[in-house]
Amino acid sequence: MIIALCDDEREENETLKRLINERALQCGLDIRCRAFTSPGELLREERFDLYILDYFMDEMNGVELAKKLNEKFGGAVTVCYLTNYENAAIEIINNRVYADGFLKKPVDAAALYEKLEAFYKFSLNGRIELKRGAVWETVYAQDILYAEAAGKKTILHMFSGGRDYNRLLSEMEKNELSGAQFFRIHRSFIVNMQHVVGYDAKSVTMKNGETLSLKAKDFQAAYRQFIFRNG
Question: Phi and psi at residue 127, in whole multiples of 5°?
Answer without folding.
Answer: -100, 135
